[in-house]
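One-letter codes give the sequence; backbone shape is given numerically. An example follows:

. . .
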Amino acid sequence: MAAGERNSWRLRTGPYLGEISALSFIPLSPRVSSFPLLLAGTGSELLVYDVESAKLINTFQVFEGVRVHGISLRSPDTKEDFFSSEADYLVAVFGERRVKLFLLRVGVGLSDRASGELSVRLDLVQRLPGFDHWILDACFLKEDELLALGLSDNSVALWDLTSSAVVSRVTSSERCLLYSMRMWGNSLKVLRVASGTIFNEIIVWKLIPESPPSSPVILMEHPCPNTSSCAITQIDGRNYVAFHLNRLIGHEGSIFRMAWSSDGTKLMSVSDDRRWVTCRSLIFTYICLYEGSARIWISGGQEQNFDNFREFSSDLILFGHNARIWDCYMTHSVVITAGEDCTCRAWGMNGNLLMIFKEHIGRGIWRCLYDPDSSLLVSAGFDSTIKVHQLHSYSSMETREQGGLIDDLKDQREIFEICAPKLTKQLGLMDSKSEYVRCIRFTRENILFVATNNGYLYHAELSNPGNVKWTELLQVSEAQIICIDILSRNFSEFSLDMEEIVAIGDGKGKVTVVSLTNGDHAPKVLLSFSWSAELERQLLGVHWCRSLGCSYLFTSDPRGMLKLWKINKDSLQSNSQNTTIRPSAFLLAMFTSSFRHRIMCIDALSKEEILICGDKRGNITLFPLSEELMVANHEDVMKNITSLDHFKGAHGISSVTSIYIVRSYSNHVEIQTTGADGCICYFKYYKTQHKVEFLGMKQVKEISIIQSVFSSSNSEDMVLGNYAVGFTSVDFIMWDLTNETKTIKIPCGGWRRPYSFHFGAVPEHQNCFAYLKDHIIHVHRLWVVAGEKLFPKVLHMQYHGREIHSLCFISLGLLSKISKGCRSWIATGCEDGSVRLARYSPIEMGGWSESILLGEHVGGSAVRSICFIPKIYTFRSQIHNTSNGCAYHTSANSNEDQLLLLSVGSKQVLTSWVLLNSTAEIRDSKYLSDPSKFQFSSVSFQWLSTHMPQKFANSRRKVAKPIKLSEEGSCSEKTSIDSDQISRLMSSECRKDKHDCTFVDQIDNDWRYLAVTAFLLKHVNSRFTVCFIVVACSDATVMLRALLLPHRLWFDVALLVPTKSPIPSLQHIVVTDSAQIGNAYFLISGSTDGSITFWDLTEAVGSFMHLALDVQPQTFIDCQRRPQTGRGSQGGRRWRSLANLSFEKRSRNSEGINDVTNLNDCENGFETSSTSENDQTIYPLGTKLNLASELHEIRPLRVLNSVHQSGINCLHVSKMECRGPKSERIYCVISGGDDQSLHLLGFSLQVELTDQGCGRSQPTCRNHIEDATSYHPSGSSFVRECSDCTAEKDNKLDILFQNRISSAHSSAVKGAWTDGTWAFSIGLDQRIRCWKIDDSCGFSECASVIVSVPEPEALDAIICDSERNRYQIAVAGRGMQMVEFITSSAADLSNL
């Protein structure tokens, strides 16, 4: 290929999204900012951040395919340069064996930072030659104009900044490889080198001139071993040698990082030491393993001269990390460590642990950095996020001795204790008549209401903690107060003389409403009245609904009944307290929950006429709240109201703690709930269908019980809360959902004690929390006037914290036309089981603009493969069944056309996600003003359903011999099996001929899915859609499954046999004509033995589509509607009683299948108890699932053996345009394997497309469906003879050509993609290669580029224009990177 033609095609690397591997501060002049800038190295790029505004200023590509490992900075030479509006910094950036010197120029447009924009330029100064070993550290020696480079062979290279040459290479006599090296000093005279060897030792040495020693005694104390082997070099006419100062021994693990103090007298080192610590308490003894330690070595000498040097001593050892420690930083008063356990810890110099930040995910925190001047702590790690905290320190000696790190708000936090007046005298032993506190409630930062068991309600004024003013408001008829709820005064509905309205529920079932007003010195009771709401001991809750005001009050009982009481406004405004004149409240309605569990929280919206409730067992229920009911003025209109819809197990079996209506649209309402399972769940209620659907959820892993969510005053979204409060173990926690940081932690003993909290506009600076312990109320209060919240901040968005195994572009034709600049959406699956959606926009700074967590696989099982279904195909049939049971049912998305995203992985977990088409919703929302947010928000997914293997009671599962297909695809045996024959088969065959059954071991099943591919079919004769999914498992099985939408029913359709080895790659082809008359479905698989197999799925798919018309979803128990979280949220237990058991027994006997069920239970040992109702296992009502059922087998259409010499890692298929006759459909398949080769295969398909009706077999098919149980849901097999329902087709496949490039990459090929014109591949050599497919069906390399993604595992590409001149390529592994491919025509247009 000519050089000019080769240069006309160009691969250009884009931004990298992955681990942060280097950090460095850029100090700014006080005239510009009090906070420094931050340099961060990620991949081959440098990112420059303004810490104060959390804004990305600029990005620079510094290497090609080499990751940035470290950054060293030299400040301006003079103070005048530093204090000017512009400053120049010399920056050394190193990675692997390469170093580059840059001039970093920071300037501000105007002298005033408030009105000027910062600008940063990076110019290349010098490119150092490659070294023979990796570079571990770089240090500028300003006095000598040298750059010292520490190498992994325990040597130091000296680069002359003036002559741009290596002038010296000094090698230590300890010739060994190093894990780490750190240098300190600004000249050769004081330069110290600390080398962490592979022998768990630290060697401290320096460079000295070779001259006669001035003191023989020093030579005896500090001999240089093997001086003859020391490398001797010459600088300015003087020879330098390495001189050992000390060997530090004490670590028992690899030394990963070291840090010098600013004066060079202290050295800190961290390693993966393992230490067992025994902890004893009064109750039990337990042993903890700490896998990381930090040691501080202190030098006895205060001078850095060689003559005055004394040996280092290990003065302090820090244990606490549960995994390896990756980085450390040390100042004169504080020590920072960051480790693999995703924690960043701050320690005092006395060894006390001061703070812990656990806000990263994944493999750990790689780098930490601390600036003593601004007290900024920066941490960054594998999850790509950079988090900034501000720590406040004092310079007094007393503070340094206590640890040197004290929160500046700690002195302003008030911690005090109070006790109710009548409880002060009885703090000793108590009896049944003793008084104790039942409820406490904050209404403001200085107002606390206290209710007791003797019916007293107190008002405590806390302005002065030393002199608390108590006011006894009233006593409720000597009955203990069970519950209270308070409406605060900041409602416009209230009159000016009202402060709070308190609703009290007591043990006798009475409700008391008290109206309070401000007095001269104490609050006064304006009025109070009571009425009987429930029987004795049946009133458990009183609830004000903030949106309805003080005219409506709800009460709840233990049986799930909610009563609505209407309070006359005249009663509230009357000054008379005589409640015997007339009733002041009357019963308006009773709402009965079908779950019959206690209602814990409510919310209502009168304009939408709905009421939502959450109960104690994690369920939510929706009731109508009509306008006619709300305006009624007498109790004669009292109604018993049933629910509109409900959602079982919204929070598993854990209580719903709060519920909110967050947004209202024209056709639906969005709902947010929190629960005791540590989750925040989001739901959507469709007004027309009266259906509630699950939208998504967020797990706050630091909080086990979330009590509430709320927003700060300066939050961008005042509706959805950005703070969560709750409990974990014995601590009260406030969690910042935006920055993923813990802002408050108060030990309180847990959530079972009475407690209350209150927050102001800035929750970090304005918060109150009170709890009861030993009959004393403990109050923690911080309430200071605070401005805008600056820290903590997130500078770089969070992404996957572990390796990415699969990715795919979300290709939507409509959105591709709307989005400019070729914006892309990419879905990725990770080792930690998470699935994320990221947006890439080349016109935005940094490229990556958003990352959304869609969800996680059950139990965090790794995601191995992911695929997106961008199109829905039509299926037509001659059968018109208008009376079938597959009626329309509202699903998660009310639109009929649902595009899906599928992810599979470990533990055989298959999860489906449905595309959210929220364009109509966003037109009315805040995103209308921001087009970029609008375009991205229109592409999102929500969880749809999850399929998992069934858990069997016995250790082996019996699978009968399935029906065999001949090579032509027809059935070898044509028999119709009715239900009686199935019964006889299960009773005789399985007992007499057990040798004909295949046993599958179910003990320690650790099989995982390796690949997935899928397509969607919509039946024109019904309003249902079927997603056909092919999954390949590591046990060398390939299964065709079907997901029936919108009912979320799973079916096993067919088993593809034989497969002698696992299949790591799958692709499918759907053949259709322009009129969509009939379809053909083919599968292509690549296995680990190097073979490629073609399968014809047409008959199995057609047969199932016919039988799906007769599925009756109303006969199935409600399917799984919420993802399993593994935290007690499995959908709730199914409570069984004798009545239920007898009913099920009668149902089985009436259906005539009792014998079959009992036989299966006895013969196979299956467990007969039912599973949770939200489990993915779905049973027909009145029937028992047959696990020993038959599978439809599909034989290969064509097998090509030994295509690769080893396993096939990747495979992609595409249609080739205009390469043959119009009657032929020509496709090409590109595959890559461990043999480093690429294989291009061309084949043609000749498909006879006809209507997929039953034809002559139609009567037999109908009889078969009516007389037999022809389907078994959720994991059971679809039993059907395909030839009974599908006309025979003559589908032919011919191989046209095969081309092979033996050494396409220098290592295993991990990803390949083609569109029939161009092909792209990626190998473990981190090189993307572009291949041109010519007219003769050969392919040759056109361009290549090295990416920054270590250990790449997946590749995908998308066409950005209709002319196929521009492509976007995404590569994933340890991170993700975009690469753009531009042809000559596209490059010419861009130049114009």
In short: The longest strand covers residues 238-249.
